[in-house]
Automatic annotation (TrEMBL):
Highest taxon of the lineage: Bacteria
Keywords: Membrane, Transmembrane, Transmembrane helix
Species the sequence originates in: Jannaschia faecimaris
This protein's record includes keyword Transmembrane: yes
Keyword Transmembrane recorded: yes
High-level lineage: Bacteria, Pseudomonadati, Pseudomonadota, Alphaproteobacteria, Rhodobacterales
Name of the protein: Sulphur transport domain-containing protein
Transmembrane segments: 41-61, 82-105, 111-130
Length: 144
């Protein structure tokens, strides 16, 4: 059941990204071009997603537990650390250069454009590198 729910959520997300035009890197890059051919539609897509999420959380978190899990997995940390700031900056720079965020690139794979495949491969490589660095820099249990 969880697999079916994941598929449906992914399908809705992909269709939404595609319909909004956010799978088109030129549209995303035009959002960042504020002194040129600026396109504010990305701000509307993000704002709409924020509103839907805020309303959704209000309803969902009223339940004792999620439908398909034993408990809610809600982040509790509120501090800003170097990993969060660095990762956010790297995400933003990559998005600004490529015109894709990872979520928008996945539906764009269906276009068959080589740039999308290169971007997704780079994201996967980045994930592997980040995990390897995390393992190398994580404190060992014996050192704590």
């Amino acid at each position: 059941m969880r697999l079916i729910a994941s598929y449906i959520v992914g399908l809705v997300f992909g269709v939404g990204i595609s319909l909004s035009g956010m799978a088109n890197p030129a549209k995303v890059l035009n959002f960042f071009d504020i002194f040129g051919s600026w396109d504010p539609s990305l701000a509307f897509v993000m704002g709409s997603a924020l509103i839907v999420t805020a309303i959704g959380y209000r309803f969902v978190l009223r339940a004792n537990r999620p439908l398909l899990a034993t408990r809610f997995l809600v982040p509790t940390r509120t501090d800003l650390d170097a990993r969060l700031i660095g990762g956010s900056a790297l995400f933003g720079v990559g998005w600004g250069i490529a015109g894709f965020c990872p979520g928008g690139a996945l539906p764009a794979l269906g276009t068959g454009t080589p740039a999308v495949f290169i971007f997704v491969a780079a994201v996967i490589a980045g994930i592997w590198i980040a995990r390897a660095l995390q393992r190398l820099t994580a404190p060992h249990a014996a050192d704590v």
